[in-house]
Amino acid sequence: MQSADRRADEFFEKGKKEFARQRYRQAAEAFESVVLLAPDSPNSQFMLGVSRYRSDDIAGALAPLARCVYLKPEDADAQ
Q1: Residue 58: which region, alpha, beta or left (left: phi > 0; alpha: psi -120 to 50)?
Q2: Per residue in 29-42, pLDDT tens?
Q3: b/e for 3-32, b at 16 or more Cβ within 10 A?
Q4: N or C: at which end does the chain have fewer Cβ atoms within 10 angstroms?
């Protein structure tokens, strides 16, 4: 059985690949899985927010981006 951290890493890598292919909905789905496994990861929250934004889910992008700023207030990209 895989650890939650390892599964989160695998989903994160999948999300990055989908994002690079401009498949933003699929990327968002992968990052949603990461956030379920590792909700305190600012990078995952950020990528989920950006993926949702790029797939025209502006409202859905706000909560993960706000969470990213909360977790990592110095992250200028999230602001």
Answers
A1: alpha
A2: 999 999 999 999 99
A3: eeeebbeebbebbeebbeeebbebbbbbbb
A4: N
pLDDT value of residue 3? 87
Arithmetic mean of pLDDT, 46-63? 97
Length of the chain: 79
In the numeric block, the tokens 């600012």 are attached to 42
Amino acid at 30: A
In this prediction the pTM is: 0.90
Give the whole-angstrom CA distance, residue 47 versus residue 28: 8
Alpha helices in 1-79, H assignment, sequence order: 4-20, 24-37, 42-54, 58-71
Amino acid identity, residue 16? Answer: K
